[in-house]
Amino acid sequence: DWGRWKEEEEEEELPDPYASVGDDVVRQISAGELEELVFEKQTKTVIGDFSYSWCFSATRAQSMFINAARQLSSQSVVFVRVDSKEYPAVARHYDVSCGLQSHVYVLRKGEGLNKERKVDSEEIVVPAQESEFMSALRSRFEAKLVHITTEDELNDFKKSHNIVAIAIFDTSKGGNSAESLPEFQALTKAATVTRGLVPIGYIDRQLGGYVGPSVKVFKHGKEMDGGMKLVIDGGVLARMIGAEAFPLVSMYEYGVRESFDRIGIPIIQVFGHDKDTINLAQEVAKEYRGRLGLVRMSPQHYYMLEDHGMDEKSVPGVGITDSFHWNSMKYAHDGEMTVESVRATVDKYLAGTLPPSFKSEKTPPPGHHDKGTVKKVVKNTLSEVVGEDSQQDTLIMVYRPWMHTLKKARQTLAKVAEAFKELDRVTVASLDVSGNFFDRDIWRGMREMEEDPCIYMCPRGGGGCKKFYGQIAQKEIFQFAAKNSQTVKQQWDDKVKPQLKAMKKAESEAKEAAKKDSARRALEYEEEVKGFNDKVEKADELEIAAGVWKRVAVHGDSKLSPPRPHDQVKVHYTGTLASNGQKFDSSRDRGKPFTFTMGIQQVIPCWEKGVSSMVPGERAQLICDHKQAYGDRGAPPKIPEKAKLLFDVELLSTGPPSVHDEM
Fold first, then answer.
1. Which residues contact 459 (CB under 8 A, 6 or more apart)?
2. Phi and psi (nearest 5°) for 137?
3. 3-state secondary structure (DSSP) of residue 543
4. Cβ 242 vs Cβ 195: under 8 Å
5. How far apart are CA 584 and CA 651, in angstroms?
6. Is 647 in the active site?
7. Distances from the Cα of 395 to the Cα of 368, 459, 486, angstroms
8. Which are the contacts of 352, defined by CB distance < 8 A and separation ≥ 6?
9. Phi, psi dihedral angles at 154 (to 5 degrees)
10. How far apart are CA 453 and CA 615, in angstroms?
11. CA–CA dist 471, 456 (Å, integer)
12. Do 564 and 615 form a contact (C-beta atoms < 8 A)?
């Protein structure tokens, strides 16, 4: 199993891309040093990589980050690396995650009204192309607000970017400077938000015939129709200006997602690509431009309907989200797909009267849970656990599927559930918060990027869930449950102890039976190996290719064809070292055939050549020179260097992938 050996080897250690990078390029610092660096006198901008050291998906972005640092770092622009695994406070503060899209963070001294020890931060999604990443970083070094004082400067600024905004201040009355006006403070805040997306300039004198106070937007040097009022709310102004950077209807992509979230515009998500849905999107977008963005979701992103409590059967459909953050509040349109009906939903959202919808896995069918096992809980059934109407104390594990210690925690929880089998009004449950809405108010103390499952005891009748702190082991969980559930404590001696005694007895009997079964199977294996070896010794040794030989023990069906490139192949095999007969791997021991695709290097070369010479039903010994197996290095610790290998291979079936998808 070439793929599995390679995977095991790769998991030994994740290379550190910063190991050979000096502090003159990227400074590797602590969380405490980060803020101090921002406030150093000569520092203007800090660019930070705060990704987790264990995050495989961040590797390419880190390489781009290092290249950018080599080109852009200076005395005033400093690139830094803080490992969020070592400093979880940084992960929490900057909302660091490990996903398909990587981020870097731009930090500056406070640029708002309260500048004292204030850090302004901005998150940048790392694009696919390095040139785009460099452009995104350079745009953050530009002046936040450009003061335009001449006609030439005005004309140059209009054409400086695809889209720009220019604020016009009327300082002719009262003699006040633009900088002293509340509208200027709002513009400063808006420019901080839109930096890198929409450059903003301002005029405080008669230029170009423009009259203030107002804001004009220019695309490709041409003034857009209308313009907008210069308001004193910086957030509102940023959304008004930022909205002009997008088409009326945007197609979903990560860059669009990042820009909407940075500006803070809520989004109407439209799912569907038929003509009527496209027309509906256009009409709705026109009405709410500047207040909400509208994004059409392509079919590969229809899974996001789950975030609104819907599924792909809901297409065409509409949802509203406060932001694209995975745990932001979502709102489903539960009505007809007409402009009038969608408009009514959006108006309720803007008025704050639209109830949120929540992501939830499908509700398990009645009777799915057997007492003494772990009960699956989803968002739609969570009130049974934490609500005022809950009828039992619930020990619940809250997890995400990729957590490091999940497998062990599941095994522990299953044994706890079995031990509590006879308890009245006590349930052991689990909740996957990757498939269900994560409510921070309920699961207090659980971080967004928690590495391990969390255990809570939720009392019947509500009242708040108590979090378990410590190692997830049976003894510790029993003590936690007895401390936080009167039912567990009161029924411990009468119901839990006898059940634990019965479980111990059953486990002992199972071990004894397994021991006997193992001895029986070992004897059968020895007899089978002896029979196979007897047949192999009598068979002719055929050279299939240089360094690959075969001896046929059982002939297959000669009417069937051998595997062809891209066929899916199912085999049973046992691998041994030719030097001493030591077994290093066996699909037979696992009780499950091994499936692979021919011709795409999923297996070692010896297998590609040897198995392609077999027909279904054939069982043979493949003899593999080290050059056709794992090479000079071998595959430590099981396969030494330059090892010659023997494989007992039985070809069970072969055919096109469409025929064998079930394998």
1. 393, 465, 484, 485
2. -70, -45
3. strand
4. no
5. 20
6. yes
7. 18, 9, 13
8. none
9. -65, -50
10. 48
11. 13
12. no
Residue type, 527: E
Task: Specify the pTM.
Answer: 0.61
Indicate the range of 73-77, 169-173, 459-463, 602-606 predicted with least confidence.
169-173
User: Do 262 and 193 touch, CB atoms closer than 8 A?
Assistant: yes
pLDDT band at 658 (very low <50, low <70, confident <90, very high): low
Active-site residue, 584 included: yes
List alpha helices for 146-233, DSSP H. 151-158, 182-194
The mean pLDDT of 8-36, rounded to a whole number, is 77
- Catalytic option among 170, 585, 625, 648: 585
pLDDT of residue 112: 42
What does the alpha-carbon distance between residue 331 and residue 268 come to, in Å, rounded to a whole number? 9
CA neighbours within 13 Å on the CB side: how many for 361? Answer: 14
- Judge whether 246 counts as a catalytic residue: no
Map tokens 């204030």 to a residue.
118
Residue 477's identity, in one-letter code, is: I
Distance CA 406, CA 404 (A): 6
- What DSSP designation does 635 have? B
- Do the beta carbons of residue 587 and residue 654 sit within 8 Å? no
Give catalytic status of residue 50 as yes or no. no
pLDDT surpasses 50 at 376? yes
The DSSP 8-state label assigned to residue 561 in this structure reads P
pLDDT digits (tens, 9 = 90+) for 388-410: 889 999 999 999 998 889 999 99
**Distance, CA of 222 to chain centre:** 41
- Tokens (6 digits) for 413: 């929880």
Catalytic residue chosen out of the listed positions 604, 625, 639, 648: 604
**Strand segments (E) across 110-234:** 119-125, 145-148, 163-168, 200-203, 214-219, 222-223
Element (H, E) at 28: strand 27-28
State the catalytic residue, choosing from 94, 252, 480, 573: 573
Q: Among candidates 401, 404, 402, 359, which has minimal Cα distance to 382?
A: 359
Note the maximum CA span of the chain: 109
CA distance 372 to 415: 9
Yes or no: say if 452 and 424 are a contact pair by the CB < 8 Å rule.
no
Q: What is the CA radius of gyration of the chain?
A: 32
pLDDT over 90 percentage in the chain: 53
Residue 522's contacts (CB-CB under 8 Å, 6 or more residues apart) are none
- Residue-wise pLDDT tens digits, 440-474: 889 999 887 678 999 999 999 888 899 999 999 99
* Euclidean distance between CA atoms 465 and 408, whole angstroms: 23
Q: Is 630 a catalytic residue?
A: yes
For residues 4 and 7, what is the distance between their CA atoms, to the nearest angstrom?
A: 5
How does pLDDT run across 540-580, given as a tens digit for each residue?
999 999 999 999 999 999 999 999 999 999 999 999 999 99
Q: What φ, ψ does residue 12 adopt, rounded to 5°? A: -60, -40
Number of alpha carbons in the 13 Å side-chain half-sphere of residue 153 = 11
